Each structure stands twice: as structure tokens, then as C-alpha cells.
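Entry 14. Structure prediction run on the chain below.
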Amino acid sequence: MRYPLKFVLLGVSLLVAVDASAQIPTLANCTRSANLLACVDGEGNAYSVNTAGSTMYLRGFEAAGKRFWAQTNSRYGQLTFFTGIASDGEAWVGYNRRVGWTTINRFSSSGGSSGKFTCNRIAGC
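Output returned:
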């Protein structure tokens, strides 16, 4: 009696796992060189990341909103400042500050959204 129950539970867990994996979005296809990473996902979103010293340049296309965007991140020790702009005129600024294993993040955008959240390696964000 114990073995058939084990196989039924295993079969149900496999069905749940297969159903859950069907809901996971497709991963992005990426190409990488020494300083540049360029990716496109299955939904048509695209982005690239270019590094030059302690500055990171990001550019992308958001398929849902049909807008292009660009962001620059500049790192100064444990602080990283970022600014960005989108093709629809929205602009944003913010910073990340590392304190040990914790990152404090704050941002504000011209679209009216702002926020502050904390992330850490153990608990996540």
C-alpha cells in the first residue's frame, strides 16, 4: 500500500512541475563580448549592457509599452547612482547603497512613482 501511494504522489508532483514549467516565460537569448551584453527575450523585449570602468550603460526596448529607454549607472565605492530616460519622455533617478550583504535602493520617476526597498542575500527583496 505504501509503494502505490508513493508513485501516485510522485506522478502528481510531476504533473504540477510540468504545468508550472509551462507558465515560466522563455529565457532571453544573449550575445556577449568583452564589454557588451545584448539580449532579446521571447516577448520581443531587448536590452544591452555596456561597461566602461565604473560606469554601466544600459539601453533597451520594452515591447509592451513600445518604448525605447536608456539608463546610466555610475559607481562610487559602495554607492551606485543611476539616471534614465524613455522615448515617451519619462525620466528616473535613484541610487543603490551597499551595506554588508544588504542593498538599500531608492528611486523616483517623472511618471510619479517613487520607492525605497531593501534587499539582502538571505531574505531577498
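The first strand starts at residue 29 and ends at 32.
Filed with the rest of this week's runs.
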